[in-house]
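RETRY 2/3 - previous attempt timed out on the joint model. Re-submitting the same 774-residue input unchanged.
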Amino acid sequence: MSRNFFGLMRSSAPPATEAPDAIGSERAAPPPPPTMKQDDAASAGVHLDPNLEAVRHDFTEEVDMALKLRGVSAFYGSFQAIDRMTMPIPRNRVTALIGPSGCGKSTLLRCCNRMNDLIPGARIAGEIEFEGRNLLDPTVDAVDVRRRIGMVFQKPNPFPKSIYENVAFGARINGYSGDMDRLVEDSLRRAALWDEVKDELDKSGLALSGGQQQRLCIARAIAVQPEIILMDEPASALDPVATLKIEDLMRELAEHYTIVVVTHNMQQAGRVSDYTAFLLAGEERVGRLVEFGPTQEIFTNPLDQRTEDYITGRYG
Amino acid sequence: MSAAMPSAQLTAFAPRIRIRRGFSVGFMVVALLAITVSMLMLGALIVEIAVDGAARLFTDGSATSQEVRGGTLIDLPMPDGMIWLSWALPVAILLPFFGLRVVRSVLSDQFARSRWIERSIGVLTTLPVAIFVHILYVRFESAYYIEYAKAIGVDDASGTIFQLFGEASGFQFVRLITAGLILPLGILAAGWLWSHRLRRPSLLLPAVAVVAWVVYLFLDPLFLSSYPSRVPAQAGLFSAITGTLYMMVITAAVAFPLGVGAAIYLEEYARRNWFSRMIQVNISNLAGVPSIIYGLLGLQVFVRVLEFERSVLAGACTMALLVMPIIVVSAQEALRTVPPSMREAAYAVGATRWQVIRFHVLPYAFGGMLTGNILAMSRAIGETAPLIAIGALTFIAFLADSPTDDFTVMPIQIFNWVQKPQSGFHEIAASGIIVLMLVLLVMNATAIIMRQRTRTDW
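RETRY 2/3 succeeded.
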């Protein structure tokens, strides 16, 4: 099954050398260097303050990058929420963003599929490279970005429509003309919800339990066949059993999708993620990236004292 | 075997859930009551006939029951005792029914959570009110029929209802039998539903009962189907009702799309700057402008400049301007009730702004918008001043064929009748007001019901 049946980005097709077809040559292409080099950012014309450079671990694993963030800053009006964040998002891996409240995790996540465009007064500076293009470029259609980079929210928010319609909506508005029943079934299966709802697809999505609603939202996000799924504390409103289900699901989905998850739960980050980014807000409440690296390294051998303090619970 | 055991035990101890099919108990009680009371009313009539017959028998046929009872002309046609009996019997039937339940509840130690107590209290407390209303009605109705008997010249005019049977039309007869029951039963039903905690309490049934009762009491069908006339007894509201309907349809067709469109623009598209704020303030101000001003505006713009003349179209356009602010504001409020999380959810699967509005925001807000529209229409239906300003006629003895025809509406017709010196016109003006009020009541009730039904619990 082609994951690109909706066609490429509407604004312009990415250069073939930079972004080959997502599925065909993803493994074949030589992986770019896993860590962001200073000259990478410099060549993109982004000035990086050396003082803002976060500590990074050297990866031994060879991974492709789904997103490359270079000097991403976000502002709400005159308030700066995040400051010049530079980090990669490895493809087909789970990347966790951790940090105390108000450090800009959600803001960073919402920058990645331009959901912040919807907030009046929000501005983003910097560059996020996605398939060879800067998706923050005003000429890039935000609707296409969101189609290819899906999102799951903190509070389950299914549409007040039937389960079937919830899943089918995204594909339908994007012009999917294949077998809708199969797509719905497939998406629900991948979201590990099919067995529970297969007999009542006409039931309202709001009639499901909280955990089921969140899995329905994940199915809804999968149904448009995105490359990346952003999850904003997807389990924070759920009980431990439902949380565990969502976590298992994230691990399974990572085989096909790149997942970025914001979480407050350190254990969760340790359990589900391959890579972890630790964000921290300074005195002036501006979020900055402190450390990025494989989760194993971050949790067992943090290079920055602040990371260690946070992980060991000294920040509370 | 051992595996089967626990499940068998579980089924044995599982609470039995009974699914009630068919009529609910509430429906059956109300139906039982209705049947009992109407049977007893008929029974009372039969008793009355018997009393009357006996009176004739005992007085060699020369005297009537009226003389036997020593009543005057404006006396009750039905003996008071019969009225009480017609209520006492159903109570006597129903009390043990509820009483038994109460006793059983107490005995079974479930007194505190028995819904039957709530329900029986609901019905029993409203019963005296229902009886009182019934008696009032019977007094009212009998006085009316005695007058009627005098008017049509029934010779002995003893005031008994059944003597009029020969003279009264079928409709009047049916009305006589049933009208006294509808309101009391409506009150009982309200009592029932009020105490019926299991479902969402609904005032629909009692409201329908009250409306039907008022219609039965005051309205002659001819009044609704006659054109205006110089003779009060022959004058009717037909052209005014059809004119009102015609105008309302066009008003809604003009005002709803424009108003909802403006609301969508203001809520979903417009940036929050001085311009949109100015429009917002202006809309709020327009809602408070006196309606006669809109009439003058309509006179100049629609009647003169656009040359619609004094037509339905001119009136409808003026009314559309008048109610537009109400529609815009209520539609904006309806749009604001759609939570941001729904919009985000739709955006996150790659919906464009219009798709978000078209497939999510509008469907979820549509009930609220329609409610606002109905409320706006119910304001327009009672407006008189702007239509007088644009010169709507008061005497229309034909139906409007096209939107460019002359027309009249109910409030103008009523205004016209009130102005006349003959007292007969004043009476039909009162009837016209009742009709107008009924229409308003129905429209507002529809709006409220729709608001309840379309509410989504996010």
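Chain B touches chain A through 22 residues (CB under 8 Å). Closing ticket.
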